[in-house]
Amino acid sequence: GEDVEQSLFLSVREGDSSVINCTYTDSSSTYLYWYKQEPGAGLQLLTYIFSNMDMKQDQRLTVLLNKKDKHLSLRIADTQTGDSAIYFCAESPRSNDYKLSFGAGTTVTVRA
Amino acid sequence: DVKVTQSSRYLVKRTGEKVFLECVQDMDHENMFWYRQDPGLGLRLIYFSYDVKMKEKGDIPEGYSVSREKKERFSLILESASTNQTSMYLCASTQTSGGYTFGSGTRLTVV
User: Fold this and answer.
1) C-alpha–C-alpha distance, residues A33 and A22, integer Å
2) Is B32:B16 a contact under the CB 8 Å cutoff?
3) Which of A40, A45, A104 comes nearest B100 by C-beta?
4) DSSP, res A26
5) Which of B4, B31, B55, B100 to probe the A interface (max A CBs under 10 A)?
6) How close B14 comes to chain A (CA, Å)?
7) In chain A, whose CA is at the least distance from the CA of B38?
8) Pseudo-torsion of CA A77, A79, A80, A81, nearest 10°?
């Protein structure tokens, strides 16, 4: 989506941390999401953050939100081979609208 | 286990054929969506529906139509398939702002 931008590829060594970055344009976004897509599958909701938060942690996942810069990141600690997938950032532009705008997706490749 | 089911994983159709892609959800969600996914372009919204018999155009509705006769079912119709409609099609549903539930996708090839 033109309103949400992500880098297309990330290569990371097994055991290292991965950081996937995303920028969005709509300052009125209420929720921001991270989805994971494994090969041949649909998208799975990984985590989301409400716009009045700046950080959310869930096990190996840490989401950071910089609302001033409209920047969202997803950090995966101790990256495993099972983390190889496409990761999509998405924003919900208006509080009463369930349409999401997706980024193009970041393909994460975990190498041994 | 709640889910969104797309009727076909893989489909091959000829140019000019009328194609139906079916999506069924068992979560009583009001909102349903059809996206297409192409490499480097991410997900682009084709059509969505907020309720039975209601439909709204998304960002790329040309060449597509939809039908929502029952709450649980949202169908995407390609009136006359063309090769540029070869893509992965993803259906999703949601009730609140808590995020979508996606189907597994239908990979359509038009030859």
Assistant:
1) 10
2) no
3) A45
4) -
5) B100
6) 23
7) A104
8) 150
A6 is written with which tokens? Answer: 């992500």
- Paired tokens of A76: 């995966």
| Tens digit of each residue's pLDDT (9 = 90 or more) over B57-74 | 999 999 999 999 999 999
Amino acid A25 reads T
Are residues A25 and A70 in contact, defined by beta-carbon separation less than 8 angstroms? yes
Q: In this structure, what are the phi and psi dihedrals at residue B49, rounded to the nearest 5 degrees?
A: -145, 130
DSSP label at A67?
T
To the nearest whole Å, the CA of B59 is away from the closest chain A CA by 10
Distances from the Cα of A57 to the Cα of A46, A73, B30, B48, angstroms: 11, 12, 30, 32
Q: What is the pLDDT of residues B24-68, one digit of tens each?
A: 999 899 999 999 999 888 899 999 999 999 999 999 999 999 999
**Are the C-beta atoms of A90 and A35 separated by less than 8 Å?**
yes
**B1 Cβ contact partners less than 8 Å away, ≥ 6 residues apart:** none
What's the token pair of residue B105?
Answer: 């996708």
